[in-house]
User: What shape does this take?
Amino acid sequence: GRANMMLRRAGALGAGRAAMRGVQRARVRRRQAMEAVRCQSFSHSTTSPRSTADDGQMTKAERRREEILRNEVEVVTNATSASCLPEDWNAKVLLVDKPLDWTSFDVCGKLRRLVRTKKVGHAGTLDPQATGLLIVCVGRATKTVEHYQGLGKAYVGTMRLGEETSSYDHCTPVTRTDASWTNLKDADLSLGASSLVGPAVPQMPPMYSAIKVKGKRLYELARRGIEVEREARPVRVDRFEVWRNENEDPRDVNFSVDCGKGTYVRSLVHDLGRHLGTFAHMTSLRRTRIGKYAVEDAWDLADLVEALEQRMDG
Assistant: This one.
């Protein structure tokens, strides 16, 4: 009897221990499940901002800009007759054909007075010696400047082979000459230009530029005869074509460029000359397109000023 009792007690103890182990395993599984849920929740909360950025979701400022672009902005082209120009210029985007010798700032200053609005800004500088399409944003449209600045741009112009200038264009004296350009064939020019096409072409900004180095504009230093070390920056060049006109000076070469934001066409011309084993500088430049907007649709500045002044007098 005692033996049977001992056996029963041992069986009950074993069953109890087994039950306890089962409970413990269940508790472990439960804790693991809860920990997994907690970790998943933490992971989601800490990575969601990064996921938002990766997914291309917009910031509050970007959403506001998109709303203004979609719901408020009106683009004023030369298709709008002088008599139908807006009375209220708030949230207007104006296409202007900038003339020679005007700075982009000059254009904005002139229009600021004529449209009687303080907030007037352009979406991409054109040098005084360049002509062509300038997008001017007025009123609340100034909040969309970054959108237009980010659009691709197209240019046409001319360059001269065998001569180099410190500004990379004709606005400063020729500093060096080279006669090896006479050996260049049209095919050499085209091949050299195509080598400067790509999504991230390294480009050294010219000393005569508005880029700041240690708080100083490069052009301010250049005018004082000071040259500083600059870092090459990647720029996007989608197309770079060159050609000569028959029966004209073979040193003079035409070009057409499609490029992205921040590209210095002067530097592109300079780099082409160096790539070909000679020198080159830009002699003229005209911007023909920004995104879908073409210079053919832009107001001639003199005509626009005249129309706005007549309205003020009236």
Observations:
- The first strand starts at residue 74 and ends at 76.
- Residues 50 and 71 are 29 Å apart (CA to CA).
- The helical segments are 2-54, 60-71, 104-115, 145-149, 186-194, 218-223, 265-275, 301-313.
